[in-house]
């Protein structure tokens, strides 16, 4: 799992390129972001552009760890998840 250190005051954009899991002619139809735990980290402005999904993260509680999971559904009905871990530190 990828690991990211984030300052509690920073606003970052993060995402995934899903081209490696899509079959010819298949497209991403939905993309959602699941944050664990829910408190303190904000997710906004998610988007889908071709095979790339992204969102913006802000906030977070100093010293806390979060796992962000991006779940996509494709035009062929497949569901894929990818996750990364945030640690909130003063940088």
Give me a quick take on this structure.
The chain is mainly beta and 91 residues long. Helix content is 0%, strand content 64%.
CATH homologous superfamily caption:
Immunoglobulins
Q: What is the mean predicted local confidence, pLDDT?
A: 96
Helix count from the secondary structure assignment:
0
Biggest beta sheet attributes: 4 strands, mixed
Uncertain regions: pLDDT < 50 for 5+ in a row? none
By secondary-structure content and strand pairing, the structural class works out as mainly beta
Radius of gyration: 14 Å
CATH-level-2 architecture: Sandwich
Q: Strand order of the main beta sheet, please?
A: 1-7-6-3
Helix content: under 10%
For the secondary structure, the number of strands is 7
CATH class, anyone?
Mainly Beta
Hey, roughly how much beta strand do the residues contain? over 45%
CATH topology: Immunoglobulin-like
Taken from the alpha-carbon principal axes, the silhouette is elongated
Number of domains: 1
User: What's the helix-strand series?
Assistant: EEEEEEE
Could you please describe the fold and organization of this structure?
This protein has one domain: Immunoglobulin-like. The model has no long low-confidence stretch (mean pLDDT 96). The strands form two sheets. Strands 1-7-6-3 form a four-stranded mixed beta sheet, with no helix packed on it. The protein has a three-stranded antiparallel beta sheet with strand order 2-5-4, with no helix packed on it. With 91 residues, the protein is mainly β. A hairpin with a 4-residue loop joins strand 6 and strand 7 (79-88). It contains no helices and seven strands. It starts with a strand and ends with a strand.
């Amino acid at each position: 799992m990828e690991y990211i250190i984030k300052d509690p005051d920073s606003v970052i954009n993060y995402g995934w390129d899903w081209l490696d899991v899509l079959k010819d002619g298949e497209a991403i139809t939905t993309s959602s972001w699941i944050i664990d735990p829910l408190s303190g980290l904000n997710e906004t402005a998610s988007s889908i552009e071709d095979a790339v999904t992204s969102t913006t993260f802000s906030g977070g509680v100093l010293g806390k760890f979060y796992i962000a999971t991006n779940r996509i559904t494709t035009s062929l009905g497949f569901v894929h998840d990818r996750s990364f871990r945030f640690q909130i530190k003063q940088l």
